[in-house]
């Protein structure tokens, strides 16, 4: 059973003033008329979410393979290098939310004092621990018990579009961070040329895995509402294993075609090839925790400057 139709915007609240854009499978894709946030309706129930993030979620070709030199590890190392050169970064206490199978934690560990992870999938958390990364809490980030030490950086790689309440996620990250601490996250850009041309066939338009579809404007608004400032958006691109790319393309046709693509990929070792890809439709966003008691400055909530921030790294 699906949960109730979700027509209210998570940022603007009731009354619902969303417009229907198109359908994708069993889901309506809606856009808030007030803030422009695009989201899927209805949202999956808790049981459905557990089913989505079972073992099979992490078995999509080589994406989560995790061996040295794999695309996941190379992408993670690239993300760590970029973060380490970000102004204001502190190499103390880092937290990776939605740490999946631990590639980012593994890449960050040699460079920081301490790194912990949170992961709702028991399977993925076990994969992380098998890499020698013991500090992984299994469960929902909003309810996880994470200790009292202030966090210097919270990372959320390809997570925010999956969660039913992204504003609550960012607000929780805000509470865990020390003043001036950073949040770094990645998500698709529905305002990109590729997303606009492909519409419902965009490779990241995959409800119920993805429930929110942000643009530089709406992700910046969300971060500002959660208390963050100095938001910088870039589009660095990443390595994509070819078996994963083939699975995604085939899954656009039917789930069965996706399964066949995975078998073909395994037979041909296609996933060992992972070219660098940049369709300019995936954003990396870094923002800073605004000191408590400070209200957002006008530029934090304005929209006209966002385009100039895109591609700054
Ligand atoms: Zn809204």
Description:
The structure is a single chain. The relative contact order is 0.14. This protein has a seven-stranded mixed beta sheet with strand order 6-5-4-7-8-13-10, sandwiched between helices. A four-stranded antiparallel beta sheet has the order 1-2-3-9, with no helix packed on it. Mean pLDDT is 85; it is low at 298-313. By secondary structure, the protein is α/β, with parallel strands linked by helices. Helix 8 packs antiparallel against helix 9. The protein has a single domain, classed as Vaccinia Virus protein VP39 (Rossmann fold), CATH 3.40.50.150. It has helices at 46-52, 71-84, 103-108, 122-130, 166-176, 193-198, 216-225, 242-253, 255-268, 298-301, 306-309; strands spanning 18-24, 27-32, 38-41, 93-97, 114-119, 136-138, 151-157, 177-188, 212-213, 228-234, 238-239, 276-277, 282-289. The site of zinc ion has 7 residues, from loops.
């Amino acid at each position: 059973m699906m949960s109730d139709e979700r027509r209210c915007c998570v940022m603007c609240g009731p009354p619902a003033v969303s417009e229907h854009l198109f359908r994708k499978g069993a889901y309506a894709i809606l856009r808030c008329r007030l803030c422009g946030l695009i989201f899927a309706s209805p949202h999956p129930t808790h049981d459905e979410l557990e089913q989505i993030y079972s073992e099979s979620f992490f078995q999509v070709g080589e994406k989560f393979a995790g061996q040295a030199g794999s695309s996941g590890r190379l992408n993670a190392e690239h993300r760590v290098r970029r973060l380490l050169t970000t102004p204001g970064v502190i190499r103390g206490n880092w937290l990776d939310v939605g740490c999946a199978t631990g590639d980012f934690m593994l890449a960050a560990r040699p460079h920081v004092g301490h790194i912990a992870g949170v992961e709702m999938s028991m399977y993925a958390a076990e994969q992380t621990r098998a890499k020698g990364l013991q500090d992984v809490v299994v469960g929902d980030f909003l309810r996880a018990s994470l200790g009292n030490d202030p966090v210097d950086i919270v990372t959320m790689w390809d997570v925010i579009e999956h969660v039913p309440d992204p504003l609550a996620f960012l607000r929780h990250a805000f509470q865990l961070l020390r003043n001036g601490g950073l949040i770094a996250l990645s998500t698709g850009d529905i305002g990109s040329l590729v997303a606009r041309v492909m519409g419902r066939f965009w490779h990241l338009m995959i409800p119920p895995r993805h429930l929110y579809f942000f643009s530089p404007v709406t992700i910046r608004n969300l971060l500002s509402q959660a208390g963050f400032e100095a938001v910088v958006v870039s589009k660095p691109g990443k390595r994509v294993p070819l078996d994963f790319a083939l699975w995604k393309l085939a899954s656009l046709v039917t789930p069965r075609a996706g399964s066949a693509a995975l078998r073909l990929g395994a037979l041909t070792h296609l996933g060992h090839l992972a070219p660098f890809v940049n369709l300019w439709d995936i954003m990396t966003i870094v923002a800073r925790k605004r000191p408590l008691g400070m209200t957002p400055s006008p530029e934090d909530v304005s929209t006209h400057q966002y385009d100039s921030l895109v591609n700054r790294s």
